[in-house]
Amino acid sequence: MRxxxxxxxxxxxxxxxxxxxxxxxxxxIEKNRIETTIAKVKAVRPIVEKLITMGKSGTLADKxxxxxxLYRRKTVKILFDEVAPRFMDRAGGYxxxxxxxxxxxxxAELAILEFTDYIFQQKEKKAKDKSKAKx
Length: 135
Fold this sequence. Notes:
Layout: H1 14-31, E1 33-37, H2 38-57, H3 60-70, H4 73-86, E2 95-102, E3 109-115, H5 130-134
Antiparallel strand pairs: 1-3, 2-3
């Protein structure tokens, strides 16, 4: 029987795993998009979804609960003021997982976790001055 066997261990001890998930959660809230391994993405996705649902209510108790998990006031402010209001009309499914490539060093499968309303824009590359390069 599989009783209480759910969850992701990620080959880490409990304290390291907890801090890893907190940092990944804070990164997705602040940057709207992260790229990491599939196992980590699948582990952090439910946490992000629950925090956004918590942010939609906007009560003081929920802000304190989010602060207890995220530790940074700046991140909690972004969650409640910017991220949660974008999803007020949505009942769930705030994030999506996009499978990308394999990591060059160890061959781990990579994936992108991003908000569903995120629109990717490539950064423009700066053109190099050929006159400066010759000197």
